[in-house]
Design a protein that fits this description.
heterodimer, A: 308 residues, mainly alpha, 12 helices, B: 536 residues, alpha+beta, 6-stranded mixed sheet, 4-stranded mixed sheet, 15 helices, 18 strands
Chain lengths: 308, 536
């Protein structure tokens, strides 16, 4: 197992390098630059800024400079948020995105799995229909609609007025609406996945054997069927968690959460090259890590998978 | 993710339960008055010599004071300088600082601190966006050479402090509006000891030393900036609000919700589609007024057939500005038939298009279009370059439809983000540019100097007539006479139809009725020290 992990980690280096190369050069294809926004600026003043950020150098040298920085874990300065380095921005925003994302994934997996099992065990029963309806709603309505609707329904000064609209970091009530918004589409997906997988599993021979032993319905499901049925859900949860914990620009803007999700979009429109590269590489590393973790967990719960 | 099924479920249901029923309502201590201001997008930089964005300017205006200040109507009032003299040739400005000025640390504030501020703005190593202000807008003697790196001696810049209370600024050419640019936004002082000690971090809350009515005590990236009274401010007695919290509000719709909920007192903007509804509900708490942004369509003179003035005039005439702005775009934009925005005491010339009856206007447009050689058998197709922001895109798309309906032009809109849009302008391959310009200050010079062919703004518009009128204006210190000359220059510009003027942009804010002292003004200056909160 240890050798396997080492192999995977080493194998991810070329992936990350390719990601760096592609992102670095693709961004430069976009018209304009990070400091082209002012129309009155004189040539001298613009040249001073570009020199300060090494944008006057040939592209290959800028790339070499960036790689050299990466080797020292230096993502460079942000060109939009000029008081901060990219590392500082990621350090400041990631814990928040992580917190919101983990709560959302926890809520999504628990609710989704519960709904999925309920639907599978009571097929074509009202419970199944309700679970299906919840799932379809979560999938069909985009989060930029769900978020504002939740705010208008539960937010202070609106509708029921139960929950604060934003104001991160706050205590638990502040987290409810963003976490629910972020979790809903995942609840939907997980519950559909779990339902399908569970229906298949409870028909499997080993589950019939368990039933035949007479250990009771609940134990059959919890001990035997669950373990088999959860596998596709685990495979989904790995990458989904990676996406969720790196933040969502929609949820972050609507609920004013100071995470890193917004950087993916704003860095691109601002032509903030180092920030764009930084968050992309960071995201790439998280996805690689999440996939590795998923495979390890699968190895632990699926007797068919072995890494030795 | 192999977890036992029960515990997280319990935890989650507990979480939901607590959330729904355990709603908190803790507020700040009642003794301090707090003003919550929405700031819009995340802060770029709070470096007073580098920042060039209006939103950060709000914060910097509270924590730094320039030589002059603006009152609630945007008019000049004494700031750190209590009075000033301007030499007869308009080239030397002498500012006399107030007695007993102090930094927030208690150290004395001297004229050299203002010299250091301007010199640092110009220093190539600072890489400041607004260095150009002292090179072109107000051409300080020696500033261009110092900023361009040809003269590395800071003493070569024409800003000196003969004594602790006197600051002398020498200009290379007259700039009668120069005082407008001596505010905190352009000419804040520099506390050099903290810059020397902390480098770029001298503006972090734990290090900052400033001279404004407030001082910064907290800066949480992407969240908020907190300011409290600066007891060492010379006029601290007149400052009424104890604490200012600037909150990042990236989503304007959320900002409106926060304002409704009482979490914000002032918003940075109002989504254009909500203005009417909010006005019906909140009346005069909805502030919509003209800004310093002028919106116009530019024609590419380097690209035939747009070098034909008849065609340009026809295109301008074919735009129904009233329908475009008041029925389609709305959002606080107002029809503007001149290049400059409406400015007090400035009698701006207008293109005749707006005053004409609709039928006459269209008939003349069709006539000129035919004169320029176009018609059903020789159709014209063109592209309008636009940003993809909501209102500008709406303007471009509606104009395209109007040109199609009136003149049968096949007009396409090419919308992209702001950087791409500006890059397209520099590339010079565009036909029509859905253009705008935000004035550095509310004076006609800010707009007309940009269109001066010598400014090389990229319009390729040779006009000795315009240059001559501008030269005369800049040498005239009497404001009324100068404005008359500037109006002549603007008339030359409008007659050429280099641009088709369209509209003036809006400033849009929700301001709670308990906030007193707020005044709408085009440059959108709203120092917190001018505001107070009325008890409810």
């Amino acid at each position: 197992m240890f050798a396997y992990v080492i192999r995977r980690v080493v194998g991810s280096v070329p992936t990350l390098f390719a990601l760096t190369v592609i992102t670095f050069f693709m961004m430069r294809v976009a018209p304009g630059g990070p400091f082209s926004g002012s129309r009155r600026i004189t040539k001298d003043a613009l040249a001073n800024i570009e020199r300060a950020y090494h944008l006057d150098e040939p592209l290959w040298l800028q790339f070499a400079r960036y790689i050299w920085g990466l080797l020292h874990f230096d993502f460079g300065p942000s060109m939009t948020y000029r008081d901060y380095t990219v590392s500082e921005l990621i350090r400041a925003g990631f814990p928040t995105s992580l917190e919101v994302g983990l709560w959302a994934m926890l809520l999504a997996s628990v609710t989704g799995i519960a709904l999925g099992i309920a639907g599978a065990l009571r097929r074509n029963h009202p419970i199944d229909y309700i679970a299906g309806a919840v799932a379809m709603t979560g999938l069909a309505i985009p989060i930029f609609v769900i978020g504002p609707v939740l705010q208008l329904t539960f937010g202070h000064g609106h509708g029921l007025g139960w929950l604060p609209l934003t104001d991160w970091p706050g205590d638990l009530p502040h987290k409810i609406m963003p976490v629910v918004t972020l979790a809903l589409p995942n609840i939907a997906y997980v519950s559909r996945l779990m339902r399908g997988s569970m229906i298949e599993t409870i028909r499997a021979n080993y589950v019939r054997t368990a039933r035949a032993k007479g250990i009771g319905e609940w134990r059959t499901i919890a001990r035997h069927a669950f373990k088999g049925a959860i596998l596709p859900v685990v495979a989904y949860l790995g990458p989904a968690t990676a996406i969720t914990i790196t933040g969502s620009i929609v949820v972050e803007q609507i609920f004013q959460i100071p995470g890193i999700g917004r950087h993916f979009v704003t860095a691109a429109t601002n032509r903030d090259y180092p920030l764009m590269l930084g968050v992309t590489l960071f995201y790439g590393a998280i996805v690689i890590f999440a996939n590795l973790l998923t495979d390890i967990v699968r190895g632990l719960i699926d007797p068919k998978v072995s890494y030795e | 993710m192999a977890f036992s099924c029960r515990r997280p479920l319990q935890a989650a249901s507990l979480a939901i339960g607590l959330g729904l029923f355990g709603v908190l309502s803790a507020g700040p201590a009642a003794a301090d008055s707090v003003l919550n201001r929405g700031i819009g997008a995340t802060i770029g930089t709070l470096d007073p010599q580098v920042n060039f964005l209006a939103t950060e300017g709000f914060i910097l205006d509270d924590i730094y004071e320039g030589l002059i200040d603006y009152d609630a109507n945007g008019q000049i009032v004494p700031g750190a300088a209590e009075k000033w003299d301007i030499s007869d040739d308009g080239l030397t400005y002498t500012f006399h600082l107030r007695d007993g000025l102090k930094w927030s640390s208690g150290e004395p504030l001297v004229a050299q601190d203002f010299v250091n501020g301007i010199v640092r703005t110009l220093d190539p190593a600072t890489a400041s966006d607004k260095a150009y202000i002292f090179v072109t807008t107000v051409a300080v003697a020696g500033a261009g050479d110092f900023n361009g790196g040809t003269n590395k001696d800071p003493a070569s810049v024409g800003v000196t402090a003969p004594d602790a209370k006197t600051l002398v600024i020498k200009l290379a050419k007259p700039a009668p509006y120069a005082l407008l640019l001596m505010s905190s936004f352009y000419a804040p002082p520099l506390h050099k000891p903290s810059l020397d000690k902390f480098g770029k971090d001298f503006i972090k809350p734990e290090n900052i030393v400033s001279n404004g009515a407030y001082k910064m005590v907290e800066n949480v990236p992407q969240s908020h900036v907190t300011l409290v009274r600066n007891p060492n401010y010379w006029d601290a007695g007149s400052v009424k609000i104890d604490k200012i919290v600037y909150k990042v509000t990236e989503d304007d719709n959320t900002a409106v919700k926060l304002w409704r909920a009482g979490d914000l007192d002032i918003t940075i903007d109002i989504p254009s589609d909500q203005i009417d509804k909010l006005k019906a509900e909140f009346g005069d708490q909805v502030h919509v007024s003209p800004s310093t942004e002028t919106v116009y369509e530019s024609f590419n003179l380097k690209k035939p057939p747009f070098d034909n003035p008849k065609l340009r005039e026809a295109l301008s005439l074919a735009v129904d500005r009233d329908a475009l702005i008041n029925k389609v775009v709305k959002g606080g934009y107002s029809v503007n038939c001149g290049y400059t925005i409406p400015i007090a005491d400035y009698d701006a010339p207008k293109v005749p298009d707006c005053a004409m009856a609709k039928a006459d206007r269209i008939a003349k447009a069709k006539q000129l279009f035919a004169d320029a050689g176009f018609g059903p058998d020789k159709p014209l197709s063109l592209a309008i370059e636009s940003t993809n922001s909501d209102s500008p895109k709406k303007i471009a798309e509606t104009i395209a439809v109007m040109w199609k309906q009136t003149l049968g032009i096949d007009a396409k809109v090419h919308a992209q983000d702001r950087d791409g849009w500006l890059a397209a302008f520099s590339a010079g391959t565009w036909d029509v540019f859905n253009d705008d310009l935000v004035g550095d200050f509310a004076g006609p010079e800010s707009y007309l100097s940009y269109m001066d062919p010598r400014a090389e703004s990229g319009y390729n518009w040779p006009s000795p007539e315009f240059e001559a009128a501008m030269d005369k204006a800049v040498a005239t210190s009497d404001k009324a006479a100068r404005y008359k000359l500037l109006a002549e220059a603007e008339k030359v510009l409008l007659d050429s139809y280099l641009t088709a003027p369209i509209a003036a942009g809006p400033n849009r804010h929700l301001v709670r009725s308990t906030v007193k002292g707020w005044g709408d003004n085009p440059p959108d200056w709203h120092s917190s020290r001018l505001l107070s909160i009325a008890p409810q």
